[in-house]
Design a protein that fits this description.
heterodimer; A: about 375 residues; mainly alpha; MetI-like fold; 3 domains; 13 helices; about 70% helix; B: about 400 residues; alpha+beta; two-stranded antiparallel sheet; 8 strands; about 65% helix; globular
Chain lengths: ~375, ~400
Amino acid sequence: MAGFEPFVRTEHCPDLPPPRGQTGIVHWIRVNLFSSPFNAVLTIASMYLVYVTVVPLFTWGVLNADWTSPNNLDRACQSEGGACWSFIIVRFNQFMYGFYPHEARWRVDTAFAILVISLAALMIERVPYKKYIGLFVIVIYPFLAYFLFLGGGVLEEVETEQWGGLFLTLVLAVVPIAVSLPFGTLLALGRRSEMPIIRSVCICLIELPRGVPLITVLFMSSVVLPLFLPPGTYFDKVLRVLVGMSFFAAAYMAETVRGGLQAIPRGQYEAAQAMGLSYWKMMGLVILPQALKIMIPGIVSSFIGLFKDTTLVVVVGLLDMLNVITAATAHSNWLGTNIEGYVFAAFVYWVFCFSMSRYSIYLEHKLHTSH
Amino acid sequence: MAVQQGTGPPVGSGRLWNDPRARSIFYQIVLATAIIAFVYYIIDNTARNLEARGIASGFGFLGTPAGFDVAMSPFFKYDLETATYYDVLLVGMSNTILAALIGCPLATLVGFIVGVLRLSSNWIVARIAYVYVETMRNIPLLLHLLFWYFLMVGVLPKVRDALSVGDSIYLSNRGLFGPMPVPDDGFWIVGVAFALAIALVVAVVRWAKKRQNETGQQFPTVLVSIAILIGLPLIAFALAGFPLHWELPRRTRFSLTGGIVLLPEFAALLFGLVAYTGAFIAEIVRAGIQAISHGQTEAAYSLGVRPNVTMRLIIIPQALRVIIPPLTSQFLNLTKNSSLGVAIGATEIVSVWMGTTLNQAGQAVEIIAITMAFYMTISLLTSAFMNWYNTRIALTER
C-alpha cells in the first residue's frame, strides 16, 4: 500500500454555474409563458389583449390628455381623443369637500389629520403610550370631530346640507363602523346567550338588516324613521342616514364577532369560569382579546364593503364623492366628461379599498401565530 | 360512593339575585318590557304622524290604478289603462328575480373561469386575472352600473342608425331588440314532451348508477341525457307541425316596437352585477381549489388517473365543499345588489315600487315593509336551499 496518497481536497470547490437554459430570463419565459403549445397560444392571446386595452387607454389618459388648469373655461379641453383632466383639476376641491365653506375647510383637514396620525400611531408597533392614544380616539376624538365639522361656539356653524365629497364619504364610512363595533359585539354576545328572549331578539336584529339590501334600509331611515318619532321632531338627513347605516353595519359586525367568538376553543371559556371570573370579566379579559385577533380581517373587509356602499346615499339625495362627480359632469361647462369623472372616482375608491385589503392581508400574516 | 346530583338552586347565600336562573328570567322580563314599550311608542307616534298627514294606513292602495308605465314586464301583460299598484309590485318582483336568475349563473361562470385562470401556470394569464379581480372588486358597484349605463346609452347608435342583422335583430341605445317566439295552438305538446324527457332522464340516471354500482360498467349518462332533453321535445315539435311563429321587432321612424327586448338599463345592471360579483366568486373559487391539499393530486396521479379526470372527479368535488357556503352569500349579495338598478332606472322592485309607487301613493310604511319582506323571503329561501345542498355534499365524518 506504500505510495498510495489519499486524495483530500483542501480548498473549497467552486460552485458550478447552473446548466445552460436553466436560469435567466429565457428560462423564466420558457417555464412561465411557453411551457406547452396551449400555454404559448394563451400567452400570445393575452399579450394581444393587453396591447388592445392598455395602448388606447394610455393614449387617451396620458398622451392626448389635457392636464392644464385653464382660467378660461371656454378654452378647456378642445382637443379630441384625449382625456379632459382639467375637469378634475378645476373641480378637485369640490370633489373633496362638497359645498363645505372654503374658509372652514381647514377644520375638515385638521380633524382627518388628527385621526390619521392617531390611527397610524396605534398601528405602528414601536409607538409608546398606546393606551392613552386609544382612549383619546375613543373618548375625546368623536366630540372633537363633531365640534370641528359642525362648528358652533367660536367656530362658524356649518349645516350638514353643505357636507359632501370625499369628506362625507369618509364620515359615512367611519362613523357607522365605529358605532357598529360595540353594538355588533353586544348583538353577537346576545346571539350566543342562553336566555331565549335575548337570543331571539338579537337574531332578529342581526338577520333582518342582513337579509335586505342597504338601499331599503336607507329608504327606511329617510322615509319611515321620521314617522316613528314624536310629531314635529326635526331629524337631520345625514344623521338619519348614519343611523340606518350603523344599524346595517352592526348586524354585519355581529356576524364577524360571532365568527371570532366561535373560533375560541371551549377550554378558554371553561378555564375562565373555573377561575371564578364573572361573565363580563371572562368576555372582556379572556375571550374578546383573543377573538379580536381573528376578527380584524373581517372588520377590515366589512369596512371596505361599507366604504363602497356609501355611494348608495344617492337614493336619499346626499352628495357623497361619486354623486358630487356625477352632478358635476352634468354641468353645462363640462358636458361629455362622464368618463373622466368615473375614472377619477374609480381611482380614488380603488386606492382606498386596495390599500385597506393589503393591510388586512399583512395583519393576517402577522397575527398568524399558531404554527 | 354515591354522587349527589342536584338540580335545585345552587348553594350560596340563598338570595334570589344570586340564583342565575332567577337573574336570567329577570333580565329577560326587563328586555321584553322595554321592547314592548318601545314598539308601542313607535306605533303610537307613527299613527299620530300618519293622522297628521292624512294618510290612511292599510293595504287598500294595492287596488288603486297606478297610472304610470313600466318599461319592462317580460312575464306579465302590463296594461297602462288597467294596471294597479299590485301589478306594479308583481312586475318589480319578477324583474328582480329575473336579474338574479340571469346574473347568478353568469357571475358563477365568470368567477370560475377567472378563478381557475388566477391559478394558471402561465404568468401573464394569472396576472391578467389578478388585475381583473383587484380592479373589479375594489370599485363600488354603483360606479360599475353608471359606467356600463353610460356606455349603453352614450356610445351605442341612435335608433335611426341602429345596427341590424337581417331585419330581425336591432342594437341601438334603446336596447337590443330580437324576434320573440310566440307559441300557437298545440304548443302544449312540446311542454308535455319536455316533462316526459325529464322523467326519462331521471330514470336513465338511476338505472346507470345502479348498473355501475353492481357491475362497474359506465354509461355515457350526460350525453344521453342531453340527447333526450333536446331530442324528445324537438320530435314532438315536428310532429305537431311546428306550432310556433316569431314576432319580429318593427322599426318605425323614431322607435322600435315589438319582439323581445333587452333594455339598456337592464343590460347595464346585468353587466355590472356580473363583472362585480364575478370578481368575488373568482376569489372564492381560487381559495377553494387552493384549500385542497396537493397530496390529493399527487395521490391521484400515482394511481394513474389522468389530469383532467383528477380535476373533475377528485379536486373539484372536494373544492366545492369549501366553495358552496361563500358562493351562497355571493348569490344573495347579487340579488340584493340588483336593488342598485334604481340608480340607473332599471325597472326592478326598488325602482318601480319603493321609488315611483312610494312617491305617488305615499304609503311609506306598507311599501317598505313589503319590499323588505320580499328580500327577506328570497334570502331565507336561498339559505334554506343552500343549507340543504351543503349538508348533502358535506364530508361524512365519524
